[in-house]
Amino acid sequence: MTRKRVDRAERAERTERLDRAERRGAAKLPRRRPPRAAAGPLPDDAGPARGSSFRCHHCHRDVPMDALGTQHRNHCPFCLWSRHVDEDPGDRASECLASMEPIAIAVRKDGEWILIHRCNGCGTLSSNRTAGDDNPLLLLRIAVKPLAQPPFPLDRLAQF
């Protein structure tokens, strides 16, 4: 294997060991810091189930747990990615813990927007209420995606 693949494999193995240790309640092992974001240094990871914030596994930014419009925040307001932590909203009982990609927007009867996430580990779909501090540009980008990239060729519309 090339050096790059070995580094990735070692990093993935280390991350998995750390996650298992944290779930067992063991003392935290020292972690390598992720690359610094443009916003400055990143605080230590508080985990999704405790503390007043958690670190996004996609963009590596610190995310506050409290937000307008939701009581059980588990998605990042900056990149809108989530982590598969809940079986039912707020229970934090999922064992998957994989990243969840925002794939769509749904709108309730009352006009509230809901984010639809797909788990990259097990494929489960889940819905999350949007929060008041979610990135509005990314929300719109996901909402108009079906119009910008339709599942059929636009040339076919001219035939009708």
Q: Can you summarize this structure?
A:
Helices cover 21% and strands 18% of the residues. The protein has 160 residues and is an alpha+beta fold.
Can you walk me through this structure?
The protein is of the alpha+beta class and 160 residues long. The protein has two domains: 1-30; 66-149, no CATH class. It contains three helices and six strands. Strands 3-4-5-6 form a four-stranded antiparallel beta sheet, with helices on one face. Strands 1-2 form a two-stranded antiparallel ribbon. The chain is globular.
Number of strands: 6
Radius of gyration: 18 Å
Strand order of the largest sheet: 3-4-5-6
Question: What composes the largest sheet?
Answer: 4 strands, antiparallel
The span between the termini is: 54 Å
Supply database-style keywords.
globular, single chain, four-stranded antiparallel beta sheet, alpha+beta, 160 residues, 6 strands, 3 helices, two-stranded antiparallel sheet
Set down the secondary structure blueprint.
Blueprint: H1 3-24, E1 53-55, E2 62-64, E3 82-83, E4 99-107, E5 113-119, E6 125-129, H2 136-143, H3 145-148
Antiparallel strand pairs: 1-2, 3-4, 4-5, 5-6
